[in-house]
Amino acid sequence: MAQTFGSKRTVVGAHYGLRDWLAQRITSVVMALFTVAVIVQILLPGEMGYDKWSGMFSRQWMKVLTFTAVISLLLHAWVGVRDILMDYVKPLGTRLALQAATIVWLVGCAGWAVQVLWRL
Amino acid sequence: MADTVKDRPVYRNIHITQLPHYRLPAPGWVSILHRISGALLFILLPFTIWMFDASVTSEISYAGFTSVFSAGWAGLPGWFFKLVVFGLIWAYVQHFIAGLRHVWMDMTHATGLAFGRQSAIATLVATAILTIALGAKLFF
Questions:
Q1: What does pTM read for this prediction?
Q2: Contact A57 B56 (CB under 8 A)
């Protein structure tokens, strides 16, 4: 067996526990609820246009739900993309670089989404 | 200890050269499509957030948002952007329904072969119907 502790410790693993797996499930439920909330509001009476669409996201409860969905997406996609990288990218340096890029990508996107939400 | 470990079979990812020889059952298709749709949603995230930004920020930005899909943008025609959105719709629906299946299986421990196969087929069929319906609304 290859040594995976001490100086040879695997530094890009999955923490070998329940936490990330559970986080991915919980965040998926949050995003599903957000999706249902958006669909229900689209189906409510009223012609779809700028007023109805932007009005949906202007309500305080919807802002909170959207913010929670964005943060959930951040955590959910991090676990998922990290799983993909762990399966297909074996060289440690490349994997670490791609994982770092994934975090930058996700944090950047989440920041942008929150910025849009904040000024509504 | 080392001798017993050596004789164990090792199962790795399917290598890309083996793909043509594999007959993937329905749950296998749902599994790999979950990955592909998730990766697609991840890669197109900036485009999704741009759509959110442009569509809610102001009436002027909303008009710009709709014109991208009719008149096009940066030399690319409007239908190209609709095609990208169609890809996003497929990925979202696929990932959403397959995700519900995942959560359901985790909560109920529904891990039997029959349920796995039937729910996988149901996932693929429901995704196809919803994607085509939403795509028709997008294009026509």
A1: 0.86
A2: yes
